[in-house]
Amino acid sequence: MKLEKARILVQGIVQGVGFRPTVYRMAKEMGLKGSVKNLGNSVEIILEGNKEEIKQFAQNLKQNKPPISKITSLKINWEKSNDHEFDDFIILESSADFSGSSVIPPDVAICDKCLEEVMNKGNSRYNYPFTACTDCGPRFTVIESIPYDRERTSMDEFPLCDECMIEYRDPLDRRYHAEATCCPECGPSVFLYKDDVLDVENPVLEAAELIDEGNILAIKGIGGTHLVAKTTEEEPVITLRERLGRFNQPFACMSPDIETVKTFAEVKDFEEETLLSRRRPIVVLNKNENYYLAPSVSPVLHNLGIMLPYSGLHHLLFKYSNEPAYIMTSANIPGEPMLIDNEEIINRLEGIADYYLLHDRKIINRCDDSVIRFRAGDLAFIRRSRGYVPEPYDFSNIADDINILALGPELDVTFALLKDKKCYVSQHIGNTTKFETYKYLQEAIDYMISITKTEKVDAVACDLHPMFFTTKLAHELSEKFECDIFGVQHHHAHAGALFVDHGIDELICIAADGVGYGADGSAWGGEILHAKGENYERLGSLMPQNMAGGDLTTKYPIRMVMAMIYDYYDPEELKELMKNEYLPYFKYGAKEIDLVLKQLDSKFNIQKTTSTGRVLDAISAALGICGKRTYEGECAMKLESMAYFGEDICEIPVKIKNYDGSDILDTSKILLSVLENKENGKSINDIACSAQRAVAEGLAKLGIKAADKTGVDVIGGTGGVFYNEAISKTIRDVVTENGYEFVQHKNTCAGDGSVSLGQAAIAAMHYKKS
User: What is the pLDDT of residues 463-520, one digit of tens each?
Assistant: First the structure.
């Protein structure tokens, strides 16, 4: 029988995931001869055998690939065969040959088999926190370059012992070329530190006991460092808040298992599935009626962020503790990147952490925890990072062969790199107005360009805001790469992310967020756009409102209240209302009220905005819920929690009118009605609920009017306001009841974390057309 020869090239997440040993086992079982090896960006399989068997092999591989792998492309090329060219099937050494783009696997949680070893007294890896195999453990955070082999990771500093080397070289072992594999004899070590390394037999046991006693620990993990405290007593939580200067922002927590989580939080089936997934994100859950953690863990809010252990170290901590949950918040100075270097961790967290649980493995790439929230069963990424990054998005229907670097907005920044029709979105970078974060952004860009072997950039996409640091960097990079710079309006970029998520190129976009630089130079944030590929038309918005003192209104929303109702009150009447009801909300008391009135009267230091976020903040302040923003989204989040316990029974009008040739929602009428209901003694919870409904209904009606006008049958929702479950659901219901399809984010962020992806999409559409 004549033998056939095939060269199979497999691309996707196929390195560092046990792909070669899986191929080896399948080929041996089917009696096929040949070889398999890693290339710089793919896996190459050479097979010799019966043609139908080779085809069957390809099908089997697709169906039975390793659990954390992902095949995006499998191509079979038939070649001339020299009969019996191969004597056996073998695994070859990796090659640096490279064409196309490499897909680096994300970090994933420790698998059950490795965890069983960690907890088994009879196992050589008993109590060893760095236990890993091809099915689990760090990937992105330890890779220095590709192809993904141990010598190109931070594990290179830890030569394998004889026993680990036997596992590493055995194709039938699950640790065959598991680059993060190690044991207590040859791997990284964990140690406890305070002033010096402490001489303790079991550092993890000591750390757990210290936390349970009320101490605050800095614990270095896989992709960064957490500050950790117990959650069942107020004192440690308040101490941590005081030391960090984070007095109100909710803390993310880690709980040992799903059963424990259910003792204090509501967990729906889809939330449980996500919590238990290999990616192990933080999931925002509603508190249940038996909630018993310290109130200051998530003050005022009806929900909190929870994750389950994803490393051996986490499991060991809870093995030694009786706490139902630990605070696990990123260890960084506010606005700056998470700390990863031992010396820097100790120095920068002095006065914040009481003790440090550290290890001696380098973290190559920072990677914050991912955060997910479900809205009426629909998943929404608040932060897409660990467990997901740098898995790319497929741009094959969007882009030609073009390389685009997109830099995102200014806060909650990610960047995106489009190459070979795959778009790689970075891990969470953060606030680029901070020098350290801006530097981190540049370092992360350099790394992504290097790891994907990107030799040229054809265009740099950025926000339209001329003063953003990312915009300035875009100009520098366009000069460096001698390429175009392509500006994308903020909310159009949000729509671009929806395009990617749903495989479409046209929709009516309801964009509701805090602020985005508008095409007219004003602050947009409650927009109705007809987005069609690279183009958009603004068809409606919330009523333009004055911001008295500009950005001061984002911190002190009572200023927004005054501006929104200024035209409806006598100045003295408005002044008395502010003094009698809201004086504590003014930083400088009564004299500030006079100053704001003068600003509104003279139009001095006034900016216009259509921001939905500012409207929700104003409602929150007017109801006495939140008078000062101390963290991003605080006033609106507290409004949502207050509304969660209310009913939609208050009369609040939804009035759409024409303004300057455009449809607008009269948000002043909504706020005036809020104040009227409050004065009439209605429940604050009910008013909050009804006010949210009114804003949502108004946005939906604006979107429907635009759809009616254009004939577009898909309406999408985007922007940070769409994390609000009640608003999101109301808009969806109104839109669908009127016969339109409603779409929102499912594998991208509603907030600014996917703006870079949207920028890349819009730019790609522009260059594809041209």
Answer: 999 999 999 999 999 999 999 999 999 999 999 999 999 999 999 999 999 999 999 9
Neighbouring CB atoms inside 10 A of 497's CB total 29
Show the beta-strand stretches assigned E in 387-481. 393-394, 404-406, 416-419, 422-425, 459-463
CB of 447 closer than 8 Å to CB of 419: no
Q: Which residue has the tokens 């591989």?
A: 61
Cα(24)–Cα(66) distance, rounded to whole angstroms?
12
Do 358 and 223 reside in the same domain of the chain?
yes
| 20 in catalytic set | yes
The tens digit of pLDDT for each residue in 720-745 reads 999 999 999 999 999 999 999 999 99
Residue 322 is among the residues annotated as catalytic for this protein: no
Q: Is the pLDDT of residue 98 over 90?
A: no
Is this structure's pTM higher than 0.70? yes
345-to-309, 447, 623 alpha-carbon distances in Å: 22, 22, 42
Which of these is catalytic: 7, 20, 50, 680?
A: 20
Q: Provide the domain limits for residue 393.
A: 372-494+752-769
Q: Which one of the listed residues 7, 25, 38, 174 is annotated catalytic?
A: 38
Give the model confidence (pLDDT) of 57-70 as tens digits.
Answer: 999 999 999 888 88
Beta strand pairing status for 303-307 and 282-286? antiparallel
Q: Decide: residue 670, CB within 10 A, 0-12 exposed, 13-18 middle, 19+ buried.
A: buried
Q: What is the CATH number of the domain that holds 273?
A: 3.90.870.40
Tell me how far apart the alpha carbons of residues 767 and 602 are, in angstroms, rounded to a whole number. Answer: 46
Answer yes or no: is 152 within a domain.
no
